Fold each of these.
Amino acid sequence: MIKRIQEIAQEAEQKIAEAKDNEELSKLQILYLAKKSELMSFMAKMKDMNQEERASFGEVMNSVKNKIQTKIDEKRKVLKDLAMEHRLKKEAMDITLPGENYERGAKHLFQKVVDEVSDIFIGMGYQIEEGPEVELDHFNFELLNVPKDHPARDMQDSFYIDETHLMRSQTSPVQARVMLSKNGVGPIKIISPGKTFRRDEDATHSHQFGQIEGLVVDENVRMSDLLGTLELFVKKMFGEKRKIRMRPSYFPFTEPSVEVDISCFECGGKGCSLCKHSGWIEILGAGMVHPNVLKMCGFDTKKYQGFAFGVGIERVAMLRYGIDDIRRFYTNDMRFNKQFHRE
Ligand code: PHE
């Protein structure tokens, strides 16, 4: 019996050494150490032994059992180490390989100008508001004092989607949206940058372009507030020496309405090709919010007044950076785009 036990022990050791994975080891564990295994079945024989035999037999069995278990445990560890080594080898990287090159991106000039203008107005306590690019006729025109069939609609050849929806032709509908959201209670002090769309296309007009709308509604708002605000904006944007002037104009949603010019920054007002020898460059439209608009948008005109203005984003950029054609903003020519990367 002892001989057989030693044979089994030897065989077990060999098989454990040859085992290739944990699954095999588990099978061997059962084969040799489970209660019903051949080896363990010898335990039953102990009840027929006398005390002395039993003690020495028990010792042999225990040492064989422990040895097999230890071998299995050791092998498990070896297999685990091997697996780790294999994984490390597989996941190793060659740090001598050249890496991928990431080029640093930068803001498009359009966005850069939006940020610059926004910064100036945020500095004056304005908040930024946004409105939808697909707009209701109601907001784009009607609440801005341009009823259906009003000839002023011709000033903004528009892209209609259906009877009631269009690609907004100006950022001014945001004025109406913001006023309505305030339920007749001021103050309002916002700017709203965004895309606008008109059926236009030449060197200075694109079917898609950007505007920044400004709106202030409060008690005791005067035309001089508008003048002072725009003067500050122009000086920050185009230089401290710039002057502005206002010319009477017409917008259906402002009364009085003005067109604002800045003194030419190229020639300082003497006259050159940039300012078409007038010394002045047209820069934006503005005016006092029309009482009809205030009323339609829920404000009491006895208590509240307001001013509004609209600046063309590309127009500002073109003047500031000397760009000759508005289409350069959209054709994605990297030679153009990269010129403005320098901070
Ligand atoms: N929305 C006008 C336009 O696109 C500009 C403007 C805005 C004029 C606000 C006055 C007040 O032409």
Amino acid sequence: MSGGDATPDLFCDQLVRRFGSHAAVDRVSLDVPAGSFFSILGPSGCGKTTLLRMLAGFDRPDAGEIRIRGERMNEVPPNRRPVNMVFQHLALFPTMTVGDNIGYGLKRRKVPAAERRQRIARVLEQVGLPDLADRQPAQLSGGQRQRVALARCLVLEPTLLLLDEPLGALDLKLREQMKVELKHLQKAFGTTFVYITHDQSEAMVMSDRVAVMRQGRFEQVAAPETLYREPATPFVAGFVGDNNRLRGEVSRREGELAYLRLADGSEVCGRIAGDALEAGATADLFVRPESLMLSPEGVSQLRGRVITTLFDGANSRVEASAAGHTLFARLPQDGSVGQLAADASLNLSWDPRRATVFAA
Ligand code: ATP
């Protein structure tokens, strides 16, 4: 790992890949520091796989440049790039033992047998499967197979490990567990990971930085916390985490705050994101379920009615209707929600700096 190295492990400048007249990847630039975990998050069809295939060398960009540790890669074939890839439907060789699967790439690189054995043993130890070298893939659980697939790549010590939805085929519980494990493994190996997923919780839990991709373009590249607290676009606000959206008309601006008049006449307030917000414009205010608070009448931003209340242990999830919108609130179990029966009226407020307003 070259943590202090100023040259990023991966650098892309204005990458474009077109299929006919459609740009599947449209002027994407990125910069991934050595030893970090970078995720590309976006809905199906946004261009994630196309981008990853160009990084791996399976596909050529129509424009732009790819550099790995400063070296131009555009013309370099996949097997000459310091890159390995883990796929969703991993293909372990079914008739080879775990050890031989892991050693396959080393053998192709003509690494001597004694060193191969050592490296296989070491990587198996690191992924927590020290005793399984002689097993066949069919004798492993789904999670173990995924760890072997990772070990098979990591043993080759690539500069970049590209991961294409590697947890997608696992069941929910295993996926939750593997998320945390993948993050630990990435830190332990110090390998730079580029991970693509449509699952925002995966990207948020594991990544140092996340690029949110939509229709071939990056909408925002930031640390998970920043994406969550300061979404740069309405798409990011809606795609990352749960959010409530209230549509209204800008009645006035005050410094960094905008006031929106909703259909029922109530006025709500949030922080302005982006600057094209004139009085009279239609705008959307996003506010997170956990930012909503019950409040006494008078100081509330919004009056509504309870639709349902669901208890989930630590929190109550309240569904309410207000100003022609359905809102979700996540309220702490401190007794205040006890009386929220269906159809009860409620007053909601929030800190305006924790709500974001975008031009619609
Ligand atoms: P998913 O999460 O469903 O895998 P994705 O974000 O990885 O989606 P891509 O597979 O990169 O998306 O596809 C991006 C766009 O490019 C889609 O509209 C897809 O139909 C199109 N596309 C991808 N590969 C080709 C191809 N070989 N020929 C024509 N169009 C393609």
